[in-house]
Amino acid sequence: xTTPTAPPAPTTPKGCRHRHFQQTPRHxxxxxxxxxxxxxxxxxxxxxxxxxxxxxxxxxxxxVMDDWQAxxxxxxxxxxxxxxxxxxxxxxxxxFQGLAAMDKQKIVVVICPLKALERDQVAExxxxxxxxTMVNENTVSPEVWASLxxxxxxxxxxxxxxxxxxxxxxxxxxxxxxxxxxxVIVDEAHCIVDWGDDFRKEYSGLAKLRDYIGQEVPVVxxxxxxxxxxxxxxxTSLCFGHRPFWGADVGCERQNLAxxxxxxxxxxxxxxxxxxxxxxxxxxxxxxxxIPKCIFYFESVAACTTAMETIxxxxxxxxxxxxxxxxxxxxxxAKALLWDxxxxxxxxxxxATDAAGMGCNVPxxxxxxxxxPPRSLSVLAQRWGRAGRDRTIKSxxxxxxxxxxxxPKGLPKKTRKGKDKPLEPKISxxxxxxxxxxxxxxxxxxxxxxxxxxx
Length: 455
Known about the structure:
Keywords: Hydrolase
Number of strands: 15
Structural class: alpha/beta
Helix content: 25-40%
Protein name: P-loop containing nucleoside triphosphate hydrolase protein
Strand content: 5-15%
Distance between the termini: 99 Å
Number of helices: 18
Organism: Hygrophoropsis aurantiaca
């Protein structure tokens, strides 16, 4: 009797898969452990909470920074590109300062649209113990270039024109200089859309920075006003998408602000519509503190001057100098002095053009008023954003507009021939049609809500 033998192992035709092949050495081999990280991202031991603690200590903050600020600093510190959307007065500048505080051996380059904003940011950084320098055509010198090249200061606030100048390009091309740059931050990034096409075209050319700084230095865009269209332009203009990216939209809710939109009645001298902001009676020996701190925005220098003269006429002689104009033609030294006086309360009312439209952190502005349609909803938000930056005070934002900016109410009347009679002249419809769509909808938001309620 023969002993039965084991059946032969099953065979698999060449080119076919078989479950027994899962036991071959090739398939039993463990996958290699993942090493390294995303290109341009460095390992960081600190968590966002660690960074929150360190920044608070190093900048000697007297308040608790928000979690989103700590997370943003953490991501940029790791090397991520980013776009930050946060309302005016939310504390975007603390992100720049916190980043500089985390590594004082490196520098942070912040591209700013206005010299007044640069000056304000430098003062704020220095108050927190950081070394900061403005780099623009008024401040540039051999000493400033030497400071930049050697990275002596922590923060450098640079105009877009200067960032793309031949002198700065030679710095960008220096490997040792690039190695000291922790991040390039484009502040008020919506200016790429607002100004990049015609006024200050350098904003639309900031993508060139990527050619100079390579892929190792993160680029961060910050703005308080960003529609989807603006976001897309910023994304394309600054060449996002080629490096690891982390974005944050914090929102722009300001519960301490009241918003009022009304018809402008005094078209020849618009500021007359806002005089009820002032006290009913002002004694001759009244202190300047009796006048609320205000910024009135106009579209021309002439309109600013007229408004200033009008307000001064109704004030006692001792208070007439508390009303001043702030326009682009004002010298840089005079602008710096005006902001300091406005901050301390020596000046209480500024009649301004767009020269005072962004940044410039004066915390206790009680009223901000515009007397003509702004170019866009973004511009309106920026100007209104000067009010109530100290969230503990209540402030009012006003927009005075000509009647044509509002959609007519009611039903059309009939002519003698039975046709509908237009509710407004064609010129009014034409002017309103030329407003930015988002702005026109915002102005007539209440009208839309009333119409929905009737339906």
